Amino acid sequence: MTGETTHNLRGDYAGMRPDYTVDQAWSAYSPEEHALWRRLYARQAALVPRYACREFIDSLAALDFGAAIPRFDEVNAKLARATNWRIVAVPGLLPDRVFFEHLANRRFPVTVWLRKPEEFDYIVEPDVFHDFFGHVPLLFDPVFADYLQAYGRGGLKADALGAIEMLSRLYWYTVEFGLIETAQGLRAYGAGILSSGGELPYCIESAEPLRIRFDLLRIMRTRYKIDTFQESYFVIGGFHELFDATAPDFTPHYAALAGLEPHAPRTVLPTDRLAG
Ligand code: HBI
Ligand code: FE
Questions:
Q1: Does pTM surpass 0.90?
Q2: Maximum CA pair distance of the chain?
Q3: pLDDT level of residue 64 (50, 70, 90 thresholds)
Q4: Closest Cα to atom 16, ligand 1: which residue?
C-alpha cells in the first residue's frame, strides 16, 4: 500500500495514536470470533508440518495460541526476551512510511480486527489472523528478525529516494510469499502463504507457478498481483541469504533499475535459475 491515505480501509483509525497504534481491546472479541480464530488456526496448523519451514514450525509449537485470539501483551513478554521485538496493535494497513518506522524500531504492526466467517478462505486486507499467525512466529528467529529491521531501515531510505515500489516488491516476494530450500525440500516462510488455506499446499505442490532462485534486482523489478495465488515464487537457501543480500546500501540498485520496464509476474528470464 503506497498511498498515504487510510480511507476506505476496514479498520477503525479514529482513535489511534500519532504512531497509528491502538489498544487491543481483547475483551471486546466475541465468542464467535474466538471460535472463528480456532477454525482458522486448526486449518493452518494441520498444513504447517508438511509445508512450512522448520523455524516457523518450532516457533508455532512454542507459542501455542490456537485456543483463542492471542493477547498481544502476553506474546510481547516472550518476544522481547527472544529477539527484542514486540508487536503493536494497529487498525490495519498503515502508510508505508509509518510501517517502515515501526519495523526499523523492532515493532511489528498487528491488525486488531478479525475477518468475517464468510472470509474464511480469502481476505483482501491483512487481519489479525494473517498478521499474527503469518508474521509473528518468525519474529522469534534471530536472523529473520534482524532482516526485518534492516528492511524497515531500508524502507525509510527508499521513501526519501522515491523507491518504495521497488522495495515493496522485495517485501512481497520474501516476507509475504517467500519459499526456502531445506533438507526436506521446498518449504514456505512467507506470511501470506502460511496464513492461506489454499496457497500453502499450492506454492509447494502445483506445477503452475514459477519457482526462481532469489535474485535481489530481479525481484525489485518484478510486479506482483495481490488478489490471486502468486504466478512466481522466489526461493532462498536460508535466512542469512536474505540478510546478506540486503545489508549493502540499495542506492546503486535503485539507480540501476531506474527507468527500466518492470517484469510481469509470470516472466521467465534467460538469467533465471529455476528451483524445485
Ligand atoms: N501496513 N499494517 C501494515 N501491514 C503491512 O504488512 C503493510 C502495511 N503498509 C505497507 C505495506 N505493508 C507494504 O506496502 C510494505 O512493502 C511497505
Ligand atoms: Fe503481511
A1: yes
A2: 55
A3: confident
A4: 168
Asked if residue 42 lies in contact with residue 66, where contact means CB atoms within 8 angstroms, the answer is yes
Residue 270 placed within a domain: no
Cell 480511507 identifies what position?
Answer: 7
Query: CA-to-CA distance for 276 and 269, rounded, in angstroms?
Result: 17
We report the CATH number of the domain holding residue 211 as: 1.10.800.10
Residues, CB-to-ion distance under 5 Å, ligand 2:
126, 191
How large is the average pLDDT for residues 181-199? 97
In a domain, 1, yes or no: no
Q: Quote the pLDDT of residue 246.
A: 86
Q: Domain span at residue 196?
A: 26-257
Helices (H), the chain: 31-51, 54-63, 72-83, 96-104, 128, 142-161, 164-171, 191-194, 199-205, 216-220, 239-245, 251-257
The overall average pLDDT reported for the chain is 95
> What is the structure's pLDDT at 249?
92
For residue 232, the cross-strand partners are: 210
Categorize the per-residue pLDDT at 6 as very low, low, confident or very high, splitting at 50, 70 and 90. low
Task: Tell me how many domains the chain contains.
Answer: 1
**Does 18 have pLDDT greater than 80?**
yes
Which residue among 19, 22, 94, 219 has the greatest number of ligand 1 atoms within 8 angstroms of its CB, and so is best to mutate? 94
79 within a domain of the structure (yes/no) = yes
Position 26 pLDDT exceeds 80: yes
**94 C-beta closer than 6 A to ligand 1:** yes
Residue of 93, 223, 226 with the most ligand 1 atoms within 8 Å of its CB, for mutation: 93
Cα separation, 244 vs 238, whole angstroms? 10
Q: What is the mean pLDDT of residues 27-53?
A: 98
Active site residues: 130, 135, 176, 195
Whether the Cβ atoms of residue 242 and residue 154 lie closer than 8 Å to each other: no
